[in-house]
Amino acid sequence: MNKRFTRGVVALVAAVSLLATACGSDEAAVGSGDCDSVDSVSLQLQWVTQAQFAGYFAAVDRGIYNDYCLDVTILEGGVDIVPQQQLASGAVDFAISWVPKALVSREQGADIVNVAQVFQRSGTLQVSWADAGIGSDPANLRGKKVGNWGWGNEFELVAGLRDAGVEDGSYEMVGQSFDMMALLNREIDAAQAMIYNEYAQVLEAKNPATGRLYEASDLAIIDWNDVGTAMLQDAIWASGERLASDPNYEDITTRFVAGSLEGWAHCRDNAGDCVDAVLDNGSALGESHQEWQMNEINNLIWPSPDGAGMISSDAWSQTVEVATTSGDLQAAPDSGAYTNEYVEAALDILSGKGVQTFGSGWQPKSVTLREGGE
Amino acid sequence: MTKRKALRTALTVLVTLILFVLFWEGYKWMGQQTDDHWPGTGFGLPVSTDDLTMPHSGDIFKELTDDIRAGRETLPMTVYLAKKAGFTFLEAAIGFSLGVIVGLVLAIFMLRWRFAERGFLPWINVSQTVPLIALAPIVVTWARLQGYPDMVGISLIATYLTFFPVAVSGLRGLQSPDSSDVELMHSYAASWSSTLIKLRLPAARPFLFPAFKLAATLSVVGSIVGEISIGTKTGLGRAILDFAQRYAVWPERLYSSVIAASLLGLFVFGLVNAAEWLVIKRGREVLK
Fold this sequence. Notes:
The structure holds 2 protein chains of 2 kinds. Chain A is of the alpha/beta class. Chain A is built from 15 helices and 10 strands. In chain A, strand 6, helix 6 and strand 7 form a beta-alpha-beta unit. In chain A, helix 2 packs across helix 11. Chain B is 78% helix and 3% strand. In chain B, strand 1 and strand 2 form a beta hairpin. Chain B is mainly α. Chain B folds into 2 domains: 53 residues, no CATH class; 208 residues, Orthogonal Bundle (MetI-like fold).
């Protein structure tokens, strides 16, 4: 508490002195684009360019980060890149990562801190064919072939099965690749799918029996948000060591979080523009697929009841509880694993700029997928 | 003579391609008739023949000429893949060049000092058993901490694959001259380095070029694998990764990107072949 207070004072003094030097006589606010110097920062994504990261791409392409005196380089993910480890090694300044995966790395010694919980809800589903009778109840997965991606993507599924009384060994876990072939070929009974990606891929595929695209009514979904084992996903992580020792990095963190959240607010209000930004950044994924993804991602972010990026202690506790019960985390993380300090400062800046950060009026749109997601 | 030989090679390639397409379509047709079983038996075929697993070869070739949206512009698939392949070629070329330098330096070092051969050779062999999945994060983290772009890390992965055949075959090649030839050089009081340049390196050429050919194709493989594991904005590996995710809805695209990758492999192989012809065959004609 004391340490955090001192740290806050240091940050405040640093911020004030920075402002003082930056503004000189006229009082330019943070986020106004009035910069004496620009800080270069890098952001590591978990995966390749897609609407899942639209807020960051839009903030770069539409000059939002520039308003915060930041020059942001976005590094796309690859198969063997673990964002939180890139962050811990100092190779990047910020990383996007799911909370449970990042906490596992943190337990193993990665000094990283969640500074903004961008996605307020989980986007992971377990998808099956409607005619398989699994429906929305994980208990029906007993005796089934259950696909999952592994690598920490299976925590919600395993916890949901356990809570439903489905013992280990009474179902078959099957490793699943990144596509939905195994479900389409009925090699597995239920496939793991992100609502914004793989689920849409099924709806973009042609049903050989009818010659038309599959429809949502052909599928049944288990939604972990409803089951109660959902875990927090995409969050912005910062280096704990640098936050503790470098007031300039703290200041950059606040500005980076503010710019990113403004990017996401932009994508809420201008979904089409953000889809263009994603396509401009060279995605071979089709336009209707990205439109679908943008809509579903917005739905995971908005509304943000406590304000965008705020880490809710309830959702955090549920995430930690699921991970500790399953043994993926040995113990609950210490209180330094997340802080709302920077996101609160960022939200203050944003409300000063008149950016709407709750999204209380958000309504998902209906997006029509075309074959192959084109 | 050479013209006829080239014609024959082209013809063989064409016939092989036609035979392969016929086999592909024949196997697919058979599977479709027998519901993926060997005719007259209950044994299933090793690969199922539906349009998702085995798209028609015609559809794959059509995909190559169809348009694809790249960012906000629309390009024919061939152009799109050629652009991606250009980037991968650059990475592979850097990786190959570094690999050849490192491999040759190691080979000369091991030739000069026997203890180096005894000490290094096992480790050079062991180096190729390190899985790339373990290597990629180490290389990319190191490169980023030095402030290099990720492309450098990817090229280093290609280097890691390419130096091996060059070092091993290079050493054998450098050791290949008969002892009588080496003794002759001794009798001229030739220094170690002029023996190396005038005798050993020319003698190593027939050993080196097969290694270079292997290294060239490995450099393409290394670049593509590096792109997939580290992640880049462009490159063939990135295209393969994109299309692999979309395999369920667009299998032809993955196949066409794989065709592009093999063509790039053939292209670099051809480049080394041409270099070999310049250095060895033409060199011989000049001697005559």
